[in-house]
Amino acid sequence: PALRAALPRWHVILREQPWYELSEVVDTIMDLTPLGESIAVQRMFESHYTGSSFLLSTHRERAELYQAQFAARRLVVRIEPAQ
Question: Is the dihedral of CA 37, 38, 43, 45 positive or negative?
């Protein structure tokens, strides 16, 4: 049987959330993604100090779902095609 072609990858990038408690951002990352606490804290601080942080890479439909789920929690992530 022929192998299915891999779907193109999309990055999910957390934007700085200046109006949120930092712990809320960490909790949301852990609730919505497979990332554990230490990585979630690292990503939160990176976005806090630099303006954005790479969360994960997945196929487009899943990236769009992450974007919608974060938006439902009033947090902003952007998605972009992986290079």
Answer: positive
Q: Is 55 helix (H, G, I), strand (E, B) or coil?
A: strand
Phi then psi dihedrals of residue 51, to 5 deg: 105, -25
Cβ 58 vs Cβ 12: under 8 Å: yes
Cβ atoms within 10 A of the Cβ of 32, count? 19
Q: Is the pLDDT of residue 5 over 70?
A: no
> Which among 31, 35, 68, 37 is positioned nearest to 54, based on CA atoms?
35
pLDDT given for residue 26 in this prediction: 96
Q: Is the pLDDT of residue 53 over 90?
A: yes
pTM of the model: 0.86
